[in-house]
# Entry
Amino acid sequence: MRVRIALAEKEIKYEYKEEDLRNKSDLLLKMNPIHKKIPVLIHNGKPVCESLIQVQYIDDIWPHKSPLLPTDPYQRAITKFWGDFVERRFSFLLFIFMGFCFALLPLNF
Ligand SMILES: N[C@@H](CCC(=O)N[C@@H](CS)C(=O)NCC(=O)O)C(=O)O
# Structure
């Protein structure tokens, strides 16, 4: 999601491909052989994995339109720290929430 927001913010056109995570495509396995996870950003035929790294990459490649990170190195470091912090906390909460939803599925909500 954050990668799509970054691309939208910079008005970068891109092709979006859905991925069935229960039946991962050869493209995903080839582009992200280490983690085998989405999202994968493919730019000029080369993959960039991990969404936080992708956002930084997008900012590096298209720096002039809507900068996403501060230019000051210290402020950049602080911004990345909080991005990483939210990532870790949010992933954990999302994991719990999804487990809760799956537990309710048999009840036909
Ligand atoms: N730290 C990674 C997390 C990526 C991630 O967990 N992706 C999930 C979907 S949101 C996934 O591909 N899950 C499939 C799996 O774990 O096999 C990132 O930010 O890119």
